[in-house]
Design a protein that fits this description.
mainly alpha; 7 helices; about 0% strand
Amino acid sequence: RLEKATDDFIEDKGFRQCSREADEAWDLVQRFCLVHKLPPSTVFLEKCAKKGNWLSFLCHSDVHSFLPEELIPLVRKHFSDSSIAEHLVLSLTANLDEPKKSNKLTNSVHFRKRFYNRVIIYIKSMHFSGALY
């Protein structure tokens, strides 16, 4: 119900589904899940993936400490651009090979550092190939 209410709120306010404003609205849902020890909501991530908005997808997953194991199924299922999906899966999968740390926060920080390095390399390769223009 909270996810539906959040979706309705975003629509009523006229926010784009993957905007910063929408992300802030979904933050309440994530906090509710955390406080009540529920699995984190993936609705915002699914919406971003369906729209092909990988940047909002990554930012939201970063802020809310999603792990690669949680993100890979979403990427495979919802990103329609196969090159972006493939790159994200490869980057996320590479991070699975890293030694496990003692807790989710430590895993998340280590994962983010390695993952963003890969994303930056991908963006630079698109820039130099002219794909960004």
